[in-house]
Amino acid sequence: MPVTKKPRASTQAQTKSALAETEIQALIEKGGSVAKPAGKEISTSKPQLVQLRLTRDVIARIDAIREARLVKIPRHMWLLEAIHEKLVREE
Question: What is the pTM of this model?
Fold first, then answer.
């Protein structure tokens, strides 16, 4: 693939870019309002996705405890129970 030089802008294009630059600066100086959600309020009851990174040995320990239970539960449920217990204890 051949390498070519970057095309040069003509004087007419430079005039247009200078005009566009003044319009851009005018828009910036005009300012605006703070962005708001589009008619939607943030729901606190909707679950928030959280990513959790654990080492393999911690996951193995959790799985060993889960397997020892009389009623088997998914790891996600076990983590939710552990978080809830910690929150109750701390509050």
Answer: 0.50
